[in-house]
Specification:
By secondary structure, this protein is an alpha/beta fold. The chain has a single domain, classed as Rossmann fold (3-Layer(aba) Sandwich), CATH 3.40.50.150. Helix content is about 35%, strand content about 20%. It contains eleven helices and seven strands. The radius of gyration is 18 Å and the shape is globular. The mean pLDDT is about 90.
């Protein structure tokens, strides 16, 4: 898994920058109830998306991230509104927020029981009628049917911790019910073969550890593809929303 303290300095530029952040924030906000006045952005990273969420009139946004350097970047964008904390143990009261978001988080969490804990914590801090919004199936989102995907199709796989069926089961177990979905394009994230090799070399693909013979074989196949610097299509990400039913 990537070290997100090390990733923080280049995180935004390597992941689509402001165009991707704008698309993500717009999609999240489309699922936030119109009357919401407070939102917690869990695993807010550098705050590039969080800042755009906070631009919505009347919405008070708090960011939380465990990585120290990520949280520092986020705090520079949202002074006084970022907390460094573990998403499995959120330092907030029960029912404190009208909405909770976690964009590009659950796919990083393992084992499954830890994903369940994150979802349960997000549900705990939601008020009755509040909505939890999260990305699902992130790994599958990057498969756009390109020649790069064809090369990588035979790589070893692991079960996706953010598979939609799993996330929905954890949400239901935490007292939440499905409340909608949205999608957005990861602008500027279409991989070129050369970028795919660079991602492989730095440990992006967790089942292909850098320096292992199998990783080297996949790198050689990627390097043999044409148009080494031409980005392939952008990924399409999926958001699911879950609501805490209002008290009778």
């Amino acid at each position: 898994m990537l070290d997100y303290d090390e990733e923080a300095e280049r995180y935004d530029v390597s992941r689509g920058g402001e165009p991707r952040a704008a698309a993500a924030a717009e999609a999240v906000l489309s699922l936030v109830p119109p009357g919401a006045r407070s939102l917690l952005d869990v695993a807010c990273g550098t705050g590039i998306v969080t800042r755009r969420l906070a631009a919505r009139d009347g919405l008070r946004v708090t960011g939380v991230d465990l990585a120290r350097t990520m949280a520092r970047h986020a705090a520079a964008r949202l002074p006084g509104a970022v907390v460094r904390a573990d998403s499995r143990r959120l330092p907030f009261r029960d029912g404190e927020f009208d909405a909770v978001s976690s964009v590009w988080l659950l796919h990083l969490v393992e084992p499954a029981e830890e994903v369940r804990r994150v979802v349960a914590e997000c549900a705990r801090v939601l008020r009755p009628g509040g909505v939890y919004i999260t990305t699902v199936d992130k790994g599958a989102s990057h498969n756009v049917g390109s020649d790069i995907d064809a090369v990588l199709a035979s790589r070893p796989r692991r079960a996706a911790s953010d598979a939609v069926a799993l996330v929905e089961s954890y949400a239901l177990a935490s007292g939440l019910v499905p409340a909608g979905r949205a999608g957005f394009r990861g602008r500027g994230q279409g991989r070129s073969p050369r970028r795919a090799v660079a991602d492989l070399r730095r440990g992006w693909f967790v089942t292909l550890p850098p320096g292992e013979p199998l990783a080297d074989r996949f790198a050689a196949r990627l390097e043999a593809l044409p148009d080494q610097d031409r980005p392939r299509p952008d990924p399409e990400f999926t958001l699911r929303a879950f609501r805490r039913p209002s008290d009778a």
